[in-house]
């Protein structure tokens, strides 16, 4: 009986405790552009699929390629980030599905909380880790 309960927890509950937003839940605008972002950022940084998977699962390896990949996702074409490194809330809301205001609020707070970090790559890495730590798992995005 104990083994059965343990197996249930390991197989069913642990994976569902962390729930990345799935592609079919992306807003149409994000669906239209995100694959280009991914391809360009992967090519630019040389990040591995394993490192991306780790971050999607809530682990944050201290690896320069995943940090640069994260930086690239945030800053690609300067779409979400203004020149002063603040979040363009209007554009963020446009990219995300309805009901995503909590995501924008958390990201804006994490952006502000890490504003003292001088290195852009470290700034966006810390901002993303803060976002992960402060958002409901059903609202976590990492492309």
UniProtKB/TrEMBL annotation:
UniProt GO MF annotations: odorant binding
Database matches in SMART domains: PhBP
Q: What domain of life? A: Eukaryota
Q: Which SUPFAM superfamilies match?
A: Insect pheromone/odorant-binding proteins (SSF47565)
Tell me the first and last residues of the signal peptide: 1-19
Q: Does the keyword Isomerase apply?
A: no
**Which Gene3D superfamilies does the protein's record reference?**
Pheromone/general odorant binding protein domain
Keyword annotations for this protein, in alphabetical order, are: Signal
Give the Pfam families listed for this entry: PBP_GOBP
Q: Which InterPro entries match?
A: PBP/GOBP, PBP_GOBP_sf
Protein's name in the database: Odorant-binding protein
Q: Which organism is it from?
A: Galeruca daurica
């Amino acid at each position: 009986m104990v083994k059965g309960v343990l197996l249930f927890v390991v197989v069913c509950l642990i994976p569902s405790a962390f729930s990345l937003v799935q592609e079919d839940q992306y807003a149409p605008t994000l669906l239209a552009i995100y694959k280009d972002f991914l391809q360009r950022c992967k090519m630019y940084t040389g990040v591995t699929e394993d490192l991306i998977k780790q971050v999607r699962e809530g682990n944050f390896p201290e690896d320069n390629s995943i940090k640069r990949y994260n930086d690239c996702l945030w800053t690609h074409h300067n779409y979400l980030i203004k020149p002063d490194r603040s979040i363009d809330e209007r554009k963020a809301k446009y990219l995300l599905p309805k009901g995503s205001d909590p995501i924008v609020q958390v990201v804006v707070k994490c952006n502000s909380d890490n504003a003292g970090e001088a290195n852009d790559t470290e700034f966006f890495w810390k901002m993303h880790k803060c976002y992960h730590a402060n958002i409901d798992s059903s609202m976590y995005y990492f492309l």
